[in-house]
Amino acid sequence: MALTGIQIFKLLPKTNCGECKYPTCLAFAMALASSKAEIDACPYITDEGRLQLSEASAPPIRQVSIGSSDYEIKIGGETVLFRHEKTFLNQPGFAILISDTMDDAEIESRFEKVNFCQYDRIGTTLRPELVALKATGNDERFISLVKKAIEKPYGIVLICPIISLMKKAVEICKARKPLIYAATTENVQELGFLAKAFNCPLAVKGNGIEEVMHLTEQLTAMGVKDLVLDTSSRGVRESFQDQIIIRRAALVGKNKQLGFPTITFPCEMTDSLMKETLIASCFVAKYAGIIVLSDFKGESIFPLLLQRLNIYTDPQRPMTTEQGIYPINNPDSASPVLITCNFSLTYFIVSGEIENSRIPSWLCVMDTEGLSVLTAWAAGKFLGDSVGSFIKKCGIIEKIEHRKLIIPGYAASILGEVEEELPGWEIQVGPREAVHIPAYLKMWK
Prior knowledge:
The structure is a single chain. The chain has 445 residues and is α/β, with parallel strands linked by helices. The chain has 3 domains: 5-57, 3-methyladenine DNA Glycosylase II, Chain A, domain 3 (Orthogonal Bundle), CATH 1.10.15; 64-311, Alpha-Beta Barrel (TIM Barrel), CATH 3.20.20; 324-442, Rossmann fold. 39% of the residues lie in helices and 16% in strands. It contains 16 helices and 17 strands. An 8-stranded parallel beta sheet has the order 10-9-8-7-6-3-12-11. The protein has a 3-stranded mixed beta sheet with strand order 13-15-14, with helices on both faces. The protein is globular. The mean pLDDT is 92.
């Protein structure tokens, strides 16, 4: 934030009412300064104070929303150059290019690829979100393409140089909040009014950064705020440099004319899908908001989705798995029950070894705030009383006929506490290393 905790505190009512869930206004101010709280949590702040804090807390790069419902993506909103400084907030969206020159089979295939290229990992679904619809002069064909797109849930990028045709397309899919691509020096007024009328984000395409700045200045003066930048660079080096210059200018230089997310086109930088994937990976790291690809194939899109997940995971917070009960190898009421923490690496190792054992089992995953078993035990988040309480409430009792629970070997010290919390249960200590789980389960009774 632009204001320090003390500066924010001066704008607060200083009632120490606690309704914001913080004990004092100073504690709330410190939470606001570190982006751990929202100003709306204070019910007594004045309108003037709220306005000042809202302006001060606005990120230097504007956050822009595209799409709706489950496929809505937010890009921009970033506050740092490097993820270790804090974290990157809004991951880039991947779009597949669909042109009105393609035949019906190819078009349908590309729509289906967006749905097909979905992968479950660490309790999260990795998937691309967007389709980029390109008009090349066949008006009726392009409109039919837009109508087909709104039958799908995906976000939409409309790439069309003809103003009248773009207007028809936006009218058809306006509820989906498409990205209009792109305003240039020749059509900035027309597309600016169109974006404002339909409340849709607008891409700005200039011949270099200076022209982009001139266009964003014009559009913001018109009241168009949700902009996405394209410097027209289609060389890898030049485009990569532009991404860094724009981010640094917005964050370090406080340049409001460049304080918007960007769109890149690896699909126009090479004819090789493998090279295109490598180029796209550069823009995932630095710093594209939307990446348009010529095609989606498992061997190309999955590595990009995985890279995006890793880069846009908060480095200060471990990756976690959702708390709950995970059936492995089709367990029944007589199957063994194991418990572990929700640190994603632990979950994947333990679940993988259980799966390899081919023994039907129930794996109970307890929320330890992303800490591993030993670390969670040391931090007081994986103790006997909390483990016992979780077993009582998670619903596993209704799924089994026995009363046996296997705890991790590294948490053997909580054995007595778990027995006290779960009277009538037989608490068994499993192996310390996950690699020994298959042999242990084969001897389980």
